[in-house]
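Problem 3 from the worked examples.
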Amino acid sequence: MSSPSSPPKTPEQTLGEITTPQTSASTESQPSYVKLAMRNMVRKGGKSLMHFFLTTFGLLAVLVGLAFLTR
């Protein structure tokens, strides 16, 4: 009559029950790197476009320069 209906919980079981919801919630709340990059590019649109065009111009200049050197 005095025996419990369910066995007592061990510290590992209670610890697992406590930490499981916290870890799943923390991974869901972090935005992805792509979302952060897109948000940053929208916020600094003019600077990003300037860097893109400078990089494109520099790459084209290198390719044209190599074409003249190797003809």
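Problem 4, a separate protein:
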Amino acid sequence: MSSSNELAQDRTDWAEDRTILANERTFAGWMRTGMASVALAVGLRAVFGEFEPTWVAKGIATIFIILAVYIFWAAQEAACKTLGRLNDNEAHAQPMNRMRILSIVFGFGAIAVGAILWAL
């Protein structure tokens, strides 16, 4: 391969590595957004307190819990899809299973928070 082709390949490899790192940052951002949705659901409990009927406040909080679970699922789905199209060169990507496991754990955590909110 000629020197200019090698340089072009190096630039392509580095761009791919930057895309992998950007994908991981985007995944982390969506996970933070999901956690913010869970925090909002918990905060609604504090704001509404002894609001009557209680099912209204709990229902609104549940919407944010469901939204959080969807965000977790969508984040891992998009991140894994993007990661599947890329090859890591110098940057070592997080394994897809790790992203899936994190999303599953966060999702179950959000559902548990929702259950606790309904139990209160």
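Solution to problem 4. The CA atoms of residues 30 and 75 lie 6 Å apart. DSSP finds three helices and no strands in the chain.
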